[in-house]
Queue: 4 jobs
Job 1
Amino acid sequence: MKIEKISKDEGYVEITEEEYLEDLASGLSEDEVLKPGRHKFIRGGFLKRHPNFNPATVETVVHISLGLDLEVLKYFKQLAVETNADSYETPIKQALREAMEKARPTRQAVTEHQALIEDPQFIEAVAERVRKLSKKSSAKPVSKSSSANKPRRRASQKTS
């Protein structure tokens, strides 16, 4: 393979017939290897050809290693059999997604409350409301005949 760099963003790759056949013999398919000839490469060419591509919208699967209790694994394997799922991973993913979706409104509410707490206008409005309510409650006279001021009788005291 001969590589010719034209600039930092452009270059050519030449593939010989022999290299092409070697790649096919190694188990790669025709659509996975470059055909013999000279091929031009441009850095960032994909985005130029696909200007509306948004990588944030592409669903990504991440492979992880996760230790599960045997009982949990058996449950999801049985669930996969009962629901004709491709594998036991499918019901695990569904359960995790349901838990995530269920928690989302709570997390959104917390975020909205946090936004209010950080809003100076909201805090000032609440403070003003508290001041008004405090003035109203301190302006009300305490009645002497209220039941709060009367002494309480104990149930064991006899009245004559």
Job 2
Amino acid sequence: MQKFRDVLSRWEARRISALEAAEMLGMSERSFRRYRGRYEEEGLDGLLDRRLGRTSARAVPADEIEWLLDQYRSRHMGWTVKHFHDYLRSQCGFKWGYTWTKTQLHTAGLVVRAPRRGAHRRKRTRRPCVGMMLHQSLPARRRGTAARMTGSRVSRRWI
């Protein structure tokens, strides 16, 4: 807020332009004009972020979260999240998504996260094929043996 007032006073004294003031504050020129108008009308309170403290319009009501957790605790303990979610969608008219359901059950500690799996594919050394340059495909420890096998120069070896 202090920085805004300093930049605004420099702008009012005509030492900097609105574009320069906006760049100093890290915003567009249009945003600077909006902030200036709100500051003139409402003072420092006009500069506060108006989104803070509000709940999202898309947020799930707390009573529905509690209902979901109660359903799992009382009747469906031990079910997988997928089966539980499918049951809720088909039998109870549940409208929230699977990932949201899983997150709520994880947060409440009712379901344990699955352990991480290993790498899908492991890197392995490639087998030399006809036309392949050996110095690019073979590891350093095997390059000398390939040169002896083919009898060619070490710098450009082809099989």
Job 3
Amino acid sequence: MGSRTTWFIAVNVLSLICIGWAAAIFLDANQAFANMVYRKTEGFDITIPLAPFFIMFLLAAISFYLVKRSSKDSLTFKKIMLPPEFSEQDERERSITANACRNAYISLTYTLPVVIVLMTLQPLVNPVTPYFFLWIVLLIPFIQWISYYITIRKLQN
């Protein structure tokens, strides 16, 4: 559990934040478009900041470069598309990954009921936090990643 795992955690969390940011931007754009269509307004003005897309592209480029640099073989589609956490070298690493994936899946059975209960709070929280439902949905992969990495750390030490 070294700097490589820390890098994966940082990239995953940062990409999840960028995805939430981009989704919030698209929600605002859709709301502006719906206002134009249903209220029959004359003008049409939607602003979409490109910052989250640029950050995601930069993360993808850096990750691709690091995977390419650390790979001794040629890059296949499977190697590029699978998360780097699944690049096991031996049977012990496969066992650790299998255990971590199992725990991440089990965490989903606890996360989903909590997310459903939190989603029922949407009408109360919406005036204060308009993207509440989006952040709650993005909690699901975040909690799975956390349980995965905690299991990896526990089993590797």
Job 4
Amino acid sequence: MPRVVIGNGSRHAGSAIVAFVTSDATPPIEAEWLTLPDLVDLLGEPLSRVRRLLDEGQLLGSRRSGALRVPALFLLGGQPLGSLRGTVTVLHDAGFTDDEAIDWLLADVESLGYPPIEALRAGRKTEVRRVAQSLA
């Protein structure tokens, strides 16, 4: 069961700094988490569109710390990270829940040497998906 560590100091009202720790995640990266109203403001989209992004897997969120929140690292240039959707699909196909997928994306993965989200943000989706497929 993941342990949740919540801090403050976020620049968005209602968002929090949250780190998740799992058995194979050492150390996790600290991530700012955004609420749905935060996403509406940042994306400039109506709430219905933000919910659709979540439903379609273009964004991934968790309710572990109360309200549904999305890691800010899942956005790049004010838009959902393009490579996230396919990677989430691979993780779901491997049997991961949304919470487990978020943990894996934010964890320092030994076979990569860094958190998968960092690789995705750097444009290395093939490498991340190869490792994710090996988890099935």
